[in-house]
Amino acid sequence: MLELQDVTITQGAFRLSADFVVAKSARVAVIGPSGAGKSTLLSVIAGFYPAESGRILWDGTDITHIQPGKRPLSILFQDQNLFPHLTIAQNVGLGLRPDLRLSPADHEAVSRALTRTGLQGMEARKPATLSGGQQGRVALTRALLRARPLMLLDEPFAALGPALKAEMLDLVAEITDETGATVLMVSHAPEDARRFAPETILVAEGTAHPPHPTTALLDNPPPVLAAYLGQ
Ligand code: ADP
Ligand code: MG
Known about the structure:
alpha/beta, 8 helices, binds magnesium ion, 35% helix
């Protein structure tokens, strides 16, 4: 369970407050107008940016001041780059061993994960020889292989076409269902939220609201969300 207790975030003139709980193994979309603070919220949960006040807890443990690499989470951003000089297997293996000292068992785990994301046989290739969609899968494979209990996705598949994006969302849902991971996914597309996330956090007008059933929220949006959705 992820808890944000009276968290306030400031960034220059920008202010955001958050006070909510995300249940274990939940899949939650994060939507709201551009500049509302969705990425900032994820950065604070990940520990890349400090909260001004309040506490962040994972399963009851205060992680507010834990350094990012020690938090129980993995992150996937849209522009999360692959290292061009490393092979696909090495790029994925970084999720297991940041020093790249992969044991034979690690190599097997990497190959199994690549098979899972439809990239079997590509271990020895370099990122530049893959399509954009395949590169997105490599980054996803690395995040999945880290197998942390909380996964933060910030518009991870925004560069993909609709069919490929839907396929990737289904894959993330399938794998995190198996591992029991909790997922927060920022998206600007309401159809992604409907497809992927039973609940949605609305970030707007200085507040990150508690998770709300996605269908109810999108079918009957508050004015700020209706304006954003163009309704
Ligand atoms: P979103 O992801 O919802 O589009 P962001 O979290 O990126 O929004 O940005 C939230 C607010 O913080 C915006 O008003 C933005 O202008 C401001 N902001 C983002 N990055 C910085 C920064 N490095 N310094 C100061 N303000 C920033
Ligand atoms: Mg953003």
